[in-house]
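Inverse folding, one chain.
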């Protein structure tokens, strides 16, 4: 059974950093793309980045230059480093996995974590 567990969220001030981690189990990790999404209150779930063995997508302009992603296939983890956080980054952050290639579409991912709350105060 595939399981994804996010960790690392919290309440921080604007300008601070957080590192989110997504730990996967029950799958051959190297065969899966892992996406990070976020959902702010009252908004649609938004694509942040997808990572696969050997690559990643570009970040949207809203986080470009502030967020980075890293993947450790030996540990079955994908981490999202978020720097210079802004109040508009406040959201529940989810990781998701899909077999094969990456996608920006939430409907293409069939394994999801429970989410971790990130709150950035001004």
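Residues assigned per position:
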């Amino acid at each position: 059974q595939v399981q994804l567990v996010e960790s690392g969220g919290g309440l921080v001030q604007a300008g601070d950093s957080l590192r989110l981690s997504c730990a996967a189990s029950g799958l051959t990790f190297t065969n899966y793309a892992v996406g990070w999404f976020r959902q702010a209150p009252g908004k649609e779930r938004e694509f942040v980045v997808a990572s696969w063995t050997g690559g990643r997508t570009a970040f949207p302009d809203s986080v470009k230059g502030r967020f980075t992603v890293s993947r450790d296939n030996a540990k079955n983890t994908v981490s999202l480093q978020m720097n210079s956080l802004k109040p508009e980054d406040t959201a529940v952050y989810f990781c998701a996995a899909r077999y094969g290639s990456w996608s920006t579409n939430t409907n293409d991912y069939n394994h999801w974590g429970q989410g971790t709350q990130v709150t950035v105060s001004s």
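The two ends are 40 Å apart (CA to CA). The mean pLDDT is 96.
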